[in-house]
Predict the 3D structure of the following.
Amino acid sequence: MKSLIEQIRDGVQGEVCDGRAAPFYARDFGRQVYALPQVVVKATCEADVRHCLQVANARRIPVTVRGGGHSSNGQSLCENGILIVNLAEQAQYKRLDDYRVEVSARTRWGQLEKELNDHGRAFPVHTDYLNLSVGGTLSVGGIGVRSLVHGMQIDQVEKLRLILPDGSARWCSPEENADLFRFSLAGLGQVGVIETAVLRTIPYRKQSRIYIYGHRNLAALAESIVWMQAMKRPLPDFFQAVRMRGQVTSVFGLDDDDKSHEKWHPEAYPEFQLGMRPVADFPFWSHAIQGQWLQEQPTHMRLWSDYFFDFEGFVGFLAYLDTLVRDRSLSPYIWAIYVLVIRTTETSGRFPLSPAALPAATPFFYSVGVYCTVSETDLEGKSMAQDICARTQEKAFAFHGRPYLHGFYQLNREALLALYGRAYETLLALKDQVDPCYLLNANTSFHKIR
Ligand SMILES: Cc1cc2nc3c(=O)[nH]c(=O)nc-3n(C[C@H](O)[C@H](O)[C@H](O)COP(=O)(O)OP(=O)(O)OC[C@H]3O[C@@H](n4cnc5c(N)ncnc54)[C@H](O)[C@@H]3O)c2cc1C
């Protein structure tokens, strides 16, 4: 009988290697979890992915799909099975018409955006770092500065080509294979591997201006944006806020276009304004800044967690974080706190595992990321950072927050049922149909508590 690696090599075009020769793939961005796969496959096309899933299914061994590997808690790792690295060297896409693009999940967002911009189009919602894969962020949800206006990345998806755990492929949309569609987006790859997605695009605007504001603390930041909730004024084109190195700042962005009279006006808060600057291609500008920050800590462990709240929960959680960062024993490990505002769309409630599937009706969701980093050799720091995560998770849940599933969190069965209720049971029923041996993407909370 052929060995696993031989059997995989027989059916794929991409590079295949022994997991022991590729230790890089035993860790993810968080560097907390270590899981060595038997075989690593760099998939280049749908047939590669299908073959890997078929082999895993026939041999009853685990198989995980990894995009950029930017999760924080081992979600994209595979212990002793097949790791499919689904990340292309170049954008793989097809423009369907002026408004829609069909893109391979292997494409990095930065690659796609560059191609779209060359054709006068843009994707509505960018993450602040563009080396993430399309499949990876659609599997968690995808939020960015423009979520204030456009919602999440998953709200921009018209349909998907999904490869089921047995290796068969099908299209899914709200009308066709609707349950697979709903549980694939923001679903951590539990019911299949996203191969391609058909996405909505918007006109490209190269130039924008950003207005930067300073706030006393996080509670003051929350207070300064109460008006958004009331929907009394027009909105800017984009928004984010961050606490870093002791400073809390918010950024309001306006595109240079002919709609400025309809939008939020920067004179709204002259007392807090720190400055204004023009920026070309904000997504790439922001990506470059993220890249620099990440280079400052190449071997750190990163315990990143984000939670979504309604406004009341957001205010309560930020007030709690103000107390946490005042604690000098903890604050050195809290690298950043990151806030985005996400508009509720018609489709926000469609995806049951999405952090935006909050039960309360609210015009916006508020995401708060608490990003702890600690040197790999600092064992005391590691337990402090874990303690911060445990405390923030407890508080977030007390404020009815929902976890953003790429992050660092611990969910037991009780927590999953409390968070997802019947949707969780539906997921398990779907899994029983499409992946009865629970082989696909097994390194998640959904498997551990089965
Ligand atoms: C520096 C940095 C900046 C970030 N900024 C943002 C941000 O601005 N906004 C935001 O929303 N998020 C942000 N994130 C979080 C990010 O969206 C998630 O970590 C995302 O999952 C990363 O994509 P990836 O390609 O690295 O996915 P991976 O970590 O490789 O995979 C994530 C999960 O999806 C599964 N998966 C991957 N590809 C597929 C597929 N094709 N089909 C099915 N399942 C799949 C994996 O098995 C895993 O469970 C950031 C993360 C980092 C590290």
